[in-house]
Write a structure and sequence with these properties.
201 residues, mainly alpha, Tetracycline Repressor, domain 2, elongated
Length: 201
């Protein structure tokens, strides 16, 4: 577990950047603290002074980044008046965040063993926020009544995971937000209340 000590900024940036770089190119189980120390320039003794294992180091970093993503989503959806606007902005902020922090996207979606990740408190950070976002969208009255919070999260995560996996598989040669521009209208149809068009003679 984490020691509870606050890591100094002089170590933090080097350590965090190195960890995300390592875990974005190597298998989770092949990374050890010696590798982290060698790549970051921070001694093993110093790292262990703040983190008791590579897992605790990695999850502390991911937790910090996910809190930043949550704050950005909250900021950008304030004042939006339709569910469609809210949902588009939710996806856009998420994809833009991962474009700017590709190591975070790769580590969460590709590298970290899912069972291990699901046991972390950080795994639930996004879920709590998505419940709040869905509640705000429901109040607008333009969501299909068959969609509940669970299905909403399924749609969000299916989009994010598949887009990131495809982007990674093909060499990360485009921006993640580009997929949103191409696919948003199709994704929105999964949520939107069906429109009844009156037939005219």
């Amino acid at each position: 577990m984490r020691t509870g000590k606050e890591i100094p900024e002089k170590h933090k940036k080097r350590l965090y950047d190195a960890v995300l770089e390592i875990f974005s190119v190597q298998d989770f189980h092949r990374v050890d603290m010696r590798t982290v120390a060698e790549n970051s320039g921070v001694s093993i003794a110093t790292i262990y002074n703040y983190f008791q294992s590579k897992e605790m180091l990695l999850f502390a970093i991911l937790t910090e980044y996910l809190h930043k993503l949550v704050a950005l989503v909250d900021l950008h959806i304030q004042g939006l008046k339709s569910s469609k606007e809210i949902f588009r902005k939710l996806l856009w902020v998420t994809m833009d965040f991962y474009d700017r922090h590709p190591g975070v996207a790769i580590t969460i979606i590709i590298t970290v063993p899912t069972r291990t990740w699901m046991q972390q408190d950080a795994y639930r950070i996004g879920n709590r926020q998505l419940d709040n976002v869905f509640e705000a969208m429901q109040k607008q009255g333009d969501i299909d009544s068959r969609i509940d919070a669970r299905r909403f999260k399924d749609i969000y995560y299916m989009f994010c995971y598949r887009v990131i996996q495809t982007w990674y598989f093909y060499g990360m040669n485009w921006k993640l937000v580009d997929a949103l521009d191409e696919d948003f209208e199709l994704i929105w149809k999964l949520l939107a209340k069906e429109r009844v068009i009156a037939e005219t003679e």
